[in-house]
Specification:
The chain is mainly α. 57% of the residues lie in helices and 0% in strands. The protein has a domain of 111 residues.
Length: 168
């Protein structure tokens, strides 16, 4: 079973699983834990109609916050089938699905809090790149993605050249 305890001292393995070195992981972990605690209070502790105190019931497979962050980073790096990641982390497929949805939202909020959210809007990206100093690093993911062709003929011309064929 994959756990942070097993990989924390293996820099290469952690890098392979998450694309982060230990210092980057630990930095993100601080923000991730803050957002996780806020998320739990909002979505589980302070809800109406709660029949028992939060924390009752079966203990989750991903008990430690480090394992939660490792799980979601590994998922986003490799995109395995949910049944595969479930086996790797010692849970059922339905539990993996639930964790993916919860932790995706938490990771998004943590990255936003850290100021590391990926920029999706081209004009905003241009502004962000102009504000970067020479000693900072930036990465651009230029992955081409398929796009639904518009029905309107004029709009089709704007988005489709006819020269590039999809890769099977």
């Amino acid at each position: 079973m994959i756990s942070y305890e097993n990989v924390k001292d293996k820099k290469g393995v952690l890098l392979s699983l998450t694309s982060l070195v230990p210092l980057e992981f630990e930095t993100l972990l601080i923000y991730f834990e803050q957002v996780w605690n806020e998320y739990i209070v909002i979505n589980h502790v302070n809800i109406r109609g709660r029949k028992r105190k939060y924390g009752g019931g079966r203990k989750p497979v991903l008990l430690k916050i480090e394992d939660k962050l490792l799980f979601i980073l590994y998922y986003f790096k490799t995109y395995p089938l949910q049944s595969v990641i479930a086996v790797q982390f010692g849970m059922s497929q339905s539990q993996a699905n639930e964790w993916i949805h919860k932790l995706s939202a938490v990771l998004r909020m943590a990255l936003d809090k850290l100021g590391q959210m990926p920029e999706r809007d081209a004009p905003a990206l241009k502004d962000a790149l102009q504000n970067i100093s020479h000693d900072e690093e930036a990465a651009i993911d230029g992955t081409e993605r398929r796009r639904q062709r518009p029905k309107d003929g004029e709009k089709q011309k704007e988005y489709y050249s006819g020269k590039k064929k999809p890769i099977p």
